[in-house]
Design a protein that fits this description.
By secondary structure, the protein is mainly alpha-helical. The protein is built from 23 helices and no strands.
Length: 503
Amino acid sequence: MAGIKALAKETAIYGLSSIIGRFLNWCLVPLYVWMFPTDEYGIVSYLYSFTAVALVILTYGMETGFFRFASKHDRPDTVYTTSLLSVASTSLLAIFLLSLFLQPVSAAIKLPGHTDYVWMLGVIVALDAFTNIPFAYLRYKKRALRFASIKMLNVALNIGLNLFFLLLCPWLCKHCPDLISWFYSIPGGDSYGIGWIFVANFISTVVVLLCLLPEMTSPRYSFDGALLRRMLRYSWPLLILGVAGIMSQNMGQMVIPYLFDDQKAAQSMVGIYGANIKIAIIMVMFTQAFRYAYEPFIFAQAGKSGEDKPQAFCDAMKFFVILGLFIFLAVMFYLPVIKRFISPAYWDGLDVVPVMMLAELCCGVAFNLSLWYKLTDRTEWGMYMSVGCFAVMLGLNLLLVPAIGIPGGFMGSAWAALISYALLMAVSWIAGRHYYPLPYQYKRMGAYALLAALMYAAGGELLLFPDMMWCTYTVRTLMLVLYLYLVARYEHLPLPGHRRRAR
């Protein structure tokens, strides 16, 4: 259990920065949806879905490759600097090519009138891809607190700049315009609208780059071409895997505008869909926090000997499922309260929340199961499965979204995600049993899933009494406490107020 405790501790630190950071960023969503109509917010959601894909392309699996080779190389700093120089070169090349072909790229993604948005986000992605390697170095060095502090600074600065540009600057423009006109009027002032969201992101990204200068200047630089070739051979399937995976994750926002002639209505659907899946973002935050700690954990465990290594992997999966189910129940039990944070104009999309949360849970389980091809260096399997998942999801989107039509076609994207991730989870489990069998506690995890399903159904029945919502939330809270109590009891975890007996 020592390895699991260390994993839990680092997941908590990474998770704190990730969850708090994403929650604070999520708090900007109510501001956006109250300030901008659904079609304008749809542009924000749409563009960020493309940048997510571009980030994976520009990182091209080097983050995982760094962990894999640093854990078994006698000079881990050489692995780091080789990775850093490689990603730096490709990031600079990407900025140059985007600047050269800005107009055709903007037209290809159906935003020919917003080349400034496209350029800013392109540079942001290139810088994010580059800084991913120093962030990975911090994780490798187990400097979780520095990692978390820089991430939180990025979030705080981004939020502060959003509030400054979207709220304070319009007020200053009316009362003392000379104070800010030197920069605020250049792009159009208040009429620049959602463009200020991208400006805030651009500035905060540059600041993060500056904060990571010690990690970029302190190691002694050494470039090993042969090592890079081995890393690329290991990582290129992860690139295909990552691209297919992130395109699957953002499929709805990316595909919907191409399926309808009415672009305004399509962007409005993207806005509604994007705003509501932000409610399900807590599951993504949890899986992301777990991933930050899990990749170094599995490669470190793989280098050890002993019978407790498979048990550590199995315990990690079990507790991931337990916490994932708890997060699902908590969000769904308090959804009537959470939805108040977004404009009623977006409530038509609330049905996507439970579907997308289950989809993200399945995706997280599939990620846990993926250790078999990472530890056996069969990363091409990850590529095959991720491409297959992408193909299934794309096909289901093309089938379901137009069939449902405007305005609720986004539900087709949500169901496509759940079906595809469930299939990915099943295939990864079947292949893992053959190549890297582990004694997962299927019955216990299944029992927890059944318990969560029964609680979810019972909690839903309480809505039949809308005049007694205080009673509904009281009962639901007690159900969550009961879930945690049962988990603690059957997993032999210490309960509050109880001390372990000395052996």
